[in-house]
Amino acid sequence: MAATLSVWLAAFLTLGVFSWMYKENPWFHFAENMYIGASLGHLAVTGFQNLKEIAVGPLVNENKYYMLIPILLGMLLFSRWTDKYAWMSRASMGFLVGTTAAVVMMGAIRAQLIQQVVATMMPLTSINNVIFVVLTIAATTYFLFTMRNKSAQKVMDLGKYVLMVAFGATFGNTVMSRISLFTGRAQFLLFQWLKIGQ
Amino acid sequence: MQFLKNQLPVVVTFVAAVTIVLNFYVDIPGLETVSNELVRWNVVLAAFALILGIGNIIKLHLKKIVRHEPDVFYSYVTLGTLAVFIIVGVVDTTEGSTYQWLWDSILLPLESTMYATTMFFITSAAYRAFRVKNAYAAVLMVSAILMMLRVGIFASFMPFTPDVAAWIWDIPNTAGMRAVVVGTALSLAGNAFRIITGLERGHLGGGT
Amino acid sequence: MWEKLNQIDVRILYVIMVILVVFPLLKPIGLPLPISTQTKNSYQAIEENIKEGDLVFLGVDFSPLQEAELWPQLVAVGGHLANKGARIVMLHVVPGGFRYEGRFADVLKSEYGLEYGVDFLCLPFSAGREAAFEAIVHDIKGLYKVDLYGESLTGYPLWNEISSAKDFKMFVEIADAPDWWLRPMSQVPGLLLWNGTVASGASTMAPFYQSGQMCGFIVGMAGGAEYEALTGKTGLATGAMDSQSLGHALIILFVVVGNLGYYMTKRGNASVN
Amino acid sequence: MGFKTGSGFHLLVLIAYIAIFVYASSRFRRTGEVYVRELEGVKKIEEGIGRAVEMGRPVHWSYGTGAFDAQHMAAFSLLSYAAKLCAQYDCRMILSIALPELVPMTDEIIRKAYSEAGKPNQYNPDDIRFLGGSHNAAMIGTIAREKVAANFMFGSLFYESVLGVEAAAMNNAIQVAGTANTHQLPFIAAGCDSIFIGAEMFAAATQIEPTPVRVGSTYAEDWITRTMVVLMIIGSLMVTFGSDALIRLMKL
Fold first, then answer.
1. How many angstroms separate the Cα of B32 from the Cα of each of A137, B19, D208?
2. What's this model's pTM, rounded to 2 decimal places?
3. Which residues of chain D are within 8 Å of residue B5 when distances are taken between CB atoms?
4. Chains contacting C (3+ CB pairs below 8 angstroms)
5. What is the C-alpha to C-alpha distance for residues D106 and B203, in angstroms, rounded to an integer?
6. DSSP strand pairing (D174-179 vs D59-62)
7. Across the interface, which of C130, C131, C199 has its CB nearest the CB of A176?
8. ipTM score assigned to the predicted complex
9. D183 closest CB neighbour out of C65, C129, C177
10. What is the C-alpha separation between A52 and A57, in angstroms, rounded?
11. Which residues from D are below 8 Å from C69, CB to CB?
12. How far, rounded to the nearest angstrom, does the alpha carbon of residue A146 sit from its chain's CA centroid?
């Protein structure tokens, strides 16, 4: 019984979401608000579990008292619920932003800059390699903002065409995954809900 | 008091970030564990920020209920579902069968169907947005169509399409996407640098 | 007349799309499916590099959003690893992943007869994404205390044999454009990186496969269907490939129709004024 | 105690960045002249808000659903620009937020924009909507119900880019979007009135408000990117003639 109720509720919500394609309507609005409640509920539960395992657990069981610092910084965020004391959350935001910035800065320079530039250093022995290096250079110059001279302008134009080819290719390539997502839901409605075919 | 409000956040950002950056370059005994600990604290704070965010939503919908606003029904739906998920999640943990039931009946269908709507939006984008208004749009369209021609049905009676698509994918596409990656790498690093040194504080309430 | 072609109500296009995509699900046509060299090379990367008893990470980092494309990939690639006798450690940093990790653990037990705690292990969710992988690289034992089911990890022989990420031969990550996985994991010397992603994530990861930072890389439903064909076990992905062919034909038709309508009305207006 | 391998050249890049940054920002302080390629997206944001005020409809803002990274930092500077315009012209802005970390920061930016426009009491926290995983459903619901006149999407965008663009296109809203996520650039390139591709999002902040800090970093980024282009050329030529000295140097 629980299984069939689950399938019916899932089908009801699936069709509710698809109903937006015709027009925004109460059926979609209901599915949307249930989605807000469910997704925030799941985030809260996984957030609590995470807090237990990484912060409260080590503090209580392995008495790592320094865990009080992140917990305190975390609680300071709640000051944002007031107007007067909202500034007290800035230290916590500073910490969040600082750690993220450091991890990003190191990763960006290593994996996104040096390793990619080194990978572009190809032997110009084959036509494809020559084309690849020229197109990469042209497209990279598109991201120069302070170049004024005219010849650079022409290279940047070629760069923009390369980017358009890349965007078009990615669009064409993504169509497959979008269709497969819909076929996944159609398979659910046809075979698990309506039980036709198969 | 002024120090707490404006300077302390920047000092916290700087100290936390420099520890991680230093650990990236140099092998100082003990620095590795401190740096890993800071990275893990990031996860702890994100969990608290989550509770803050959920608090905002509860406040928003409670206000609607108290003020008897027109579509107050939807606020009951949101708060009701939120309460059910939290109670079952805490009592039964995410591995419990009741929570699995909630997941399969509510969250799974909503998330996967929401993503499936992209097929419709790609259809209207193909018809509406892919109009050749200038030379760039023409290149965008031709490249998209050449990629789409590599799929089974076309590949069978036009055997060259997979190779054309593969060439477009390996050469111009990878070149263009690599340029975006390289072009953006420095902006990401530069932005991170400004934040670490406190030169950029827009998000902390002090402008630059 | 051309005026109408320029202003078709998109909902009509939606109805045509649904009909042509759903029809083959009920009555498969069986259109041909070419296998790309990239998928073949990725299959060989596992076939040649993984021997009996090798430790392999299996990242199950997708949520219901990507289930249609990535679940068939996980079943095909995970099955291939199990057949090669690899010892698999599954983990996830994307909240939705726990469902699929648990479900694939059942598949490993029922279909491949692997013993939990000896042949494979399931690690729980860890937030922070890139930060979580940094923690795995530097101090995996510090990050994980309990397994997916909340049991203490020290009770499992497989976990006690692992000291750090360096003991692993390969990291197979099934996720949507996980550059947040590649950046940290590329620090572990000798760890082969292998990624199965959704078609839309392919462009983000293509440069990393092309530069050799990844030894394997399969993409989307087609990649999954091709891998199923290579392992000889046809599944969900193969069944839906007919819908793909018809769906693509329609999208191309709509691009042409859109442009035709646009040009004719523009030429029409041009000749008028 | 020792130098970690593979981070030598990495440190060289960072030091070069800081050096050019200091030089360029002090030169700007002295001379005040700066040239940044015209990014038409900046004007389009203002145009979008102007249209919204005329039609008396709100504008919509989203960061996308991707994990918190530097793209959001660039989005913050664009948001403070747009929020100041909205405060000035009394235009309502509704924000859909998926990531918890962004809520306090967005709250701070909007609060500051209204107080700088001298209207602190008009700041409405209810329009800053934290939605978590349901961001995409709530976004298209809001865009359709509120009939938003302009839609701005900046940050780490995922499949919500095509949703937001096509949903707002039904209101024929003015749309500007920007991201560094290559897989979403096609959808905003095809559907938006104007876009910022990756690094352009960061350069936009310099064009909006050229402070010494921003001018310094845009010049530093430009100069190092040019050097990298030169290195690509030299490196390829050297490899063609059999020497991978440059590659080994960069891997130091």
1. 38, 9, 40
2. 0.79
3. none
4. A, B, D
5. 7
6. unpaired
7. C199
8. 0.84
9. C177
10. 5
11. none
12. 31
